[in-house]
Amino acid sequence: MSVRGFDPLRLDVAAFAKEAGRIEGRWPLRALVRLHDAAHPDADPRDAAEVSWQARGEWRLAGGGGGRPWLHLSAGAGMALVCQRCLGAVVVPLEVKRSFLFVPGEDAAAQLDADSEDDVLALTRALDLQELLEDELLLALPLVPRHTVCPEPLPLVLDVGAAADDTPNPFAVLAALKRGPPN
Ligand SMILES: [Zn+2]
């Protein structure tokens, strides 16, 4: 067992597995840019929300001698998403718990991934664990995030007269928000 540290952004998967390595840490959600794009736009820019994660390597013996490197990844975060009912922020717990088998070569990995229930990736000496974790967290996002009970009562009656004066119609503003930013 060596005492050298493993870099989660350039992880030598085979060495990590052979040493039964364990690493863990916390990353600010803001650092996961693709994931953060799904956050509620009113989220505080100083938002200290973090994702905490753990990774464990395992060299699992396979038939025919030798063995195969596995990576077990788990993570959790609470993320403010846009409630699809009231458009307010709803904090949704995200959980990831996945195991990955690594085999040499992209083609072999793709073939095995299609044929097996395990997640199979191409073996690399420089795995970006942050990118892999972000992919998994994106998959863990709920399709339709919403409060169990929205904090504000929903407007049920439109005041048609209000649209005639110069004040922005709050329902038009809501509709614009629902449509999202123009492309
Ligand atoms: Zn809501």
Characteristics:
183 residues, five-stranded mixed β-sheet, binds zinc ion
Question: Can you characterise this structure?
Answer:
The protein is α+β, with helices and mostly antiparallel strands. The chain has helices spanning 13-18, 33-36, 106-115, 129-140, 170-179; strands spanning 22-28, 50-61, 67-82, 89-103, 119-122. Strands 1-2-3-4-5 form a five-stranded mixed sheet. Strand 2 and strand 3 (67-82) form a beta hairpin. The longest helix has 12 residues, at 129-140. The chain is elongated. The chain binds zinc ion (ZN). Residues 83, 85-86, 88, 90, 146-147, 150 line the site of zinc ion.
Task: Write the H/E string, N to C.
Answer: HEHEEEHEHH
Number of strands: 5
Main pleated-sheet profile: 5 strands, mixed
Number of helices: 5
Strand content: 25-35%
Small ligands present: zinc ion
Give the overall form.
elongated
Mean pLDDT: 84
